[in-house]
Amino acid sequence: MYTTVFKFGEGSPFVNARRPVSNEIRDRLLWQAMRLAKSGKRVFKDGLVIYTPLPAYLSGPTTLEVYWDFGNPEEYQEYPKAAS
Questions:
Q1: Which end of the chain is more exposed for a tag (fewer CB within 10 A), N or C?
Q2: Residue 36 phi, psi dihedral angles, 5° rounding
Q3: Pick the residue with more confidence: 1 or 40?
Q4: Given pLDDT bands bounded at 50, 70 and 90, which one contains residue 32?
């Protein structure tokens, strides 16, 4: 399992703007997973498992710690490590 911290400050376009933040977090995690995986193509096929509930919108500055893993972890996990 991996963990990534997302910080959305006062100037972020996602704070108080009714702009969906969950899609942005999923996209960022997908790119991060591609960098960690042996083959990025398999990440798109197998997908990710996100254990932390993601908010749809942010009403103020927020720091989110998101726990996630690959859809098929034995394909990717040689050495468990934090991905933040």
A1: C
A2: -80, -25
A3: 1
A4: confident
The residues facing 63 across adjacent strands are: 7
Q: Using pLDDT thresholds of 50, 70 and 90, give the confidence band for residue 4.
A: very high
Report the C-alpha gap between 17 and 19 in whole angstroms: 5
Predicted TM-score of the model (pTM): 0.75
Report the distance separating Cα 49 and Cα 75, nearest Å: 14
75 token code pair? 């394909």
| Dihedral angle, C-alpha 37, 40, 45, 63, nearest 10 ° | 70
Distance between CA atoms of 17 and 52, rounded to whole angstroms?
Answer: 22
More confident residue, 19 or 77: 19
E strand or H helix at 40, and its extent? helix 40-46
Query: In terms of Cα–Cα distance, which of 69, 54, 77 is closest to 6?
Result: 54
Structure token pair of residue 34: 């591609």
